[in-house]
């Protein structure tokens, strides 16, 4: 079972998660000389990343990558890379090394091989994979009913190109294998609707129905969940 951190307020949850991330990254640097984290995009991580940016870490020993990315330019409003650069990689934290997913290929499928090569050079396992979850149970860009879901769940590759069934933009996503090739999985859950989906996922069932089960219904990697009302 995941370790749950319960909060009545999303801001308090974000601040606590940022503190916990900083501890894990600091411990990783002390133990191995480098710390690695994969970050999710969207609205939920923004306050976490802003708080984490001020942590007293040896940022030049931190490597930051993404859980998934929309196949848009790095300055596009929907770019996860842009979010990370605007929130986390500021001040002292700008010394961290960022390894993005988007490259110059015309689409995500054409860019997958180069993205795979770039991510394969990271020091695996990652120390933290920071996940979010949609109300459809997707995590990273592993969407229910996406035609690439089976590949994302079964491939030995670290990455998979995805066309979401409803959301805009092609995506590049970490595969299930990559998500589980980590030391810690952290998950943000905010609001009653997502809490209900989280509870359904924990109860068990096909991972294809609720892909967040990739993280929740396994025993190889420790999982911590920050839940706010």
Task: Describe this protein's structure.
- With 229 residues, the chain is of the alpha/beta class.
- 34% of the residues lie in helices and 22% in strands.
- It contains 8 helices and 10 strands.
- The protein has helices spanning 10-32, 45-52, 80-87, 108-120, 149-154, 176-180, 192-202, 213-216; strands spanning 3-7, 35-39, 62-66, 68-70, 97-98, 126-131, 159-162, 171-174, 182-190, 222-228.
- β2 (35-39), α2 and β3 form a beta-alpha-beta unit.
- α1 packs across α2.
- The two termini are 20 Å apart.
- The model has no long low-confidence stretch (mean pLDDT 97).
- Residues 13-219 form the Glucosamine/galactosamine-6-phosphate isomerase domain.
- It catalyses: 6-phospho-D-glucono-1,5-lactone + H2O = 6-phospho-D-gluconate + H(+).
- This is 6-phosphogluconolactonase.
Shape: globular
- The spatial strand order of the largest sheet comes to 1-10-9-6-2-3-5
Strand content: 15-25%
Instruction: Summarize the helix and strand pattern as letters.
Output: EHEHEEHEHEHEEHEHHE
Number of strands: 10
Model regions low in confidence, pLDDT < 50 over at least 5 residues: none
| N-end to C-end Cα span | 20 Å
Class derived from helix and strand content: alpha/beta
Average pLDDT reading:
97
Strand count, sense and closure of the main sheet?
7 strands, parallel
Helix percent reads 25-40%
Radius of gyration: 16 Å
Put simply, the count of helices is 8
InterPro entries: 6-phosphogluconolactonase_DevB, 6PGL, Glc/Gal-6P_isomerase, NagB/RpiA_transferase-like
Function: Hydrolysis of 6-phosphogluconolactone to 6-phosphogluconate.
Family: Belongs to the glucosamine/galactosamine-6-phosphate isomerase family. 6-phosphogluconolactonase subfamily.
Pathway: Carbohydrate degradation; pentose phosphate pathway; D-ribulose 5-phosphate from D-glucose 6-phosphate (oxidative stage): step 2/3
């Amino acid at each position: 079972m995941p370790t749950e951190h319960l909060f009545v307020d999303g801001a308090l949850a974000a601040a606590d998660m940022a503190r916990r991330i900083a501890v894990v990254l600091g411990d990783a640097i002390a133990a191995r000389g480098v710390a690695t984290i994969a970050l999710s995009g969207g609205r939920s991580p923004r306050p976490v990343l802003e708080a984490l940016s001020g942590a007293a870490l040896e940022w030049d020993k931190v490597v930051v990558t993404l859980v998934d990315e929309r196949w848009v330019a790095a300055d596009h409003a929907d770019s996860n890379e842009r979010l990370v650069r605007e929130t986390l990689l500021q001040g002292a934290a700008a010394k961290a090394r960022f390894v993005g997913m988007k490259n110059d290929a015309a689409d995500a499928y054409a860019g997958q091989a180069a993205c795979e090569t770039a991510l394969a050079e990271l020091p695996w396992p990652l120390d933290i994979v920071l996940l979010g979850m949609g109300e459809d149970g997707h995590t990273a860009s592993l969407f229910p009913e996406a035609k690439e879901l089976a590949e994302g769940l079964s491939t030995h590759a670290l990455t998979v190109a995805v066309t979401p069934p409803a959301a805009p933009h092609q995506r590049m996503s970490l595969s299930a294998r990559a998500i589980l090739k980590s030391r810690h999985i952290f998950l943000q859950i905010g609001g009653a609707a997502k809490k209900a989906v989280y509870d359904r996922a924990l109860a068990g069932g096909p991972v294809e129905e609720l892909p967040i089960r990739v993280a929740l219904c396994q025993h190889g990697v420790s999982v911590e969940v920050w839940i706010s009302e």
